[in-house]
Amino acid sequence: MTQDVKTIIGEIFNEIADGLEKGRYGEKVRIGITTIGSEHGIEEVVRGAEMAASNMVGLDVVLIGPSPGTELEAINPGDCERDIHSEMERLLDEGYIHGCVTMHYNFPLGVSTVGRVITPGRGREMIISTTTGASSSHRAEGMVRNAIYGIAVAKALGKKEPTLGILNVDGAKQVERVLNRLKEGGYPINFATSVRKDGGCVMRGNDLLAGVPDVMVMDTLTGNLMMKIFSAFTTGGSYEALGYGYGPGIGKGFNRIIGIISRASGAPVIANAIKFMAEMKKGNLLDIKEKEISLAEKAGLERLLKELKEETAGGTAEVKVPPKKPVTEEITGIDILELDNAVRLLWKEGIYAETGMGCAGPVILTAPEDNERARLILRDYIGK
Question: Main EC class of this protein (predicted)?
Answer without folding.
Answer: oxidoreductase
